[in-house]
Amino acid sequence: MPTVYALIDCNNFFVSCERLFRPELEGRPVVVLSSNDGCAVSRSQEAKDLGIPMGAPHFQYRQLFADQGVVACSANFELYGDISERITNLLASITPNIEVYSVDESFLDLGQLDLTDYTAWGRMVRHHILQQVGVPVSVGVAGSKTLAKAANDRAKKLPALGGVLDLSGSGEAADDYLAGMPVTDIWGVGRQLAPRLRAEGVHSALDLKRMNYHRAQQLMGIHGRHLVYELNGTACLPLARDHKPQVMISRGRQFGEDTRELYVIESAVAALAARAAASLRREHQLARQATVYLQTNRHKPGYQRTQQTVRFYTPTADTGRITGQLIEALMNETNLSRDWHRADVLLHDFVPEAGLQTDLLGTVDLPLDDRSRRKLQALDAINARHGKGTVKFAAENLSQAWQPRRRLVSPRYTSAWEELPEVHLLP
Amino acid sequence: MDQLNSADLPGAYQAAAGTGTTISVHAGFPNPAAERQGAPLSLDKLLIRHPSSTYFFRIRGHSWHDYGVFDGDLAIIDRALSPRGRDLVVWWEESGEFRLSPLDGADRAHVWGAITAIIHSYGAQNEARRK
Fold this sequence. Notes:
The structure holds two protein chains of two kinds.
Chain A: E1 5-10, H1 13-21, E2 30-33, E3 40-43, H2 45-49, H3 58-68, E4 71-74, H4 77-94, E5 98-102, E6 105-109, H5 118-133, E7 137-142, H6 145-157, E8 164-166, H7 172-179, H8 193-199, H9 205-209, H10 213-220, H11 222-231, E9 248-259, H12 262-282, E10 285-295, E11 305-316, H13 319-333, E12 340-352, H14 370-386, E13 422-424
Parallel strand pairs in A: 2-4, 7-8
Antiparallel strand pairs in A: 1-6, 1-7, 2-3, 5-6, 9-12, 10-11, 10-12
Helix pairs in contact in A: 10-11, 12-13
Chain B: H1 11-17, H2 43-47, E1 54-60, E2 74-78, E3 88-92, E4 98-102, E5 111-119, H3 124-129
Antiparallel strand pairs in B: 1-2, 2-5, 3-4, 3-5
């Protein structure tokens, strides 16, 4: 049996989640804004039709939003995460051979399912997710992940297809669809590759499919050869089911208002370091380096960015140690008298907690002494049980001024008893 | 009620012991199911057949007292079910406001999901959630 992949991708996922609990938004232009209400990260079809691009900064489009009745929502990631998990669980009940590629996309390997009509199957999946979870998805099916992603793109953009396209059949059928698709819409063709392909006369996805694979390899390395194979329906990329350990962990936020107040900066760095370190502990990794970045507002004159990196001679996942050293480095090494707009904390250069190497003298300086480890385990357990941020390190609480503005955020409909949607009885 | 050291109690009781919750433990007649090693009864399993399609709503309004439905009650909705006739459903008006009624009285094009249970809890906890 040949390999067949399906890509299930939610249509403007964040907007769809908002509409589930605000059905009056159906048919109206809606955008979801990134944290701190910065820019559009999800747009309904109606908003796309108004020419609002992905990443549109809110302040530049405020007038258009007002004129056209565009509804703007602040991102409600708790809600999106919950809906995403429901979809993943439904898909995993179809087959365990699933790769959750992102919050709104999953690949399924259909090889074991003994299906004959993939279009009918796709329609069934689409119907079930719309009915049971409540958000629309598109389904693309093909012999490779790249082609399944292309099929999904077409299914989404060509309304006549009803959200499902099967390109798993013999090559020719796919050609019409690929001819109408710019090569830059192909998964794995980034902005860097596009000019090189154009120079070769490769403009559409079909051009790339028909490209000589030797030439593709000369131009783009083994990646290029795989692209051509994949577009011809030969799978080169397997389903990535195993969780890959992260190589770096980064947490960042904009300040609610630009600030030069030390205590605001300190408390933001502490909170970000705490979140990054908690994530590191979940991965059972230790960091050898941490970096803190500060930047001023990119849209204002005199844009400036500063960073400080600290090295830990014994790798660590200790919030207190990471925070302390980062803040010390910032205070000592950086001129902070600017109005800062954003802070980021990056942990990198990891070693696994289990395989800790001894130093040159063969001694192990335990990264967390036993008391410190137990304290952090307790902190993580309490926060997991009662919600993030229940127990904090002291510095995190110095100021709440850095917390992002989310003025337009919807309730946590599915994750807080106090914020459930309400159903009204007629008098 | 016998005074017991919380460490002697089964897990769930231990958890409750620190929270100020009163649990009455009756000594005497042996529990006929004490030997059974099955899973404990779960309200989640009883009330939620399809976790992926189950949502909770809060009921607002006082007009259904005669049917035993009160302001602040919790409605459980399973979108995987196909309601019929007198089955209770949540549906929405053009304004986006959610309504509760038998399917027969609902706007069929705007049905959000079928009600599987309405939970009324007594006491201060519930009182606090009423507006």
